[in-house]
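Example (one chain per record):
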Amino acid sequence: MVVDGDTKIYGLFDGHGVKGHLISSFAMGTMVDYIKNSKCFNQLNLSEMNGGEPVTDAEMTKAIRLCFKYTQDRVREQYYDYLINEKKKEIVKTKMEA
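Predicted structure:
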């Protein structure tokens, strides 16, 4: 849950599989970081705080979709890095056994 003034965002991160808990924790941390630090969410927050119009559903939907996309890209990068490291370990192990 992220709380900032009157705004509250709840999320459920349910990992599946042997390492699902690691992926869900990573996704949660990435999303919280994005929400707290992205221009997109900061602009929405500043607009309303400075007496501007309340954030519309469309604006919030767009911001959340950008957050999901950002998180999905980071998870994919981490997975590719994991695969590369596993392949390197396999190569080293094969060389050591030879």
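Caption: The longest strand covers residues 2-4.
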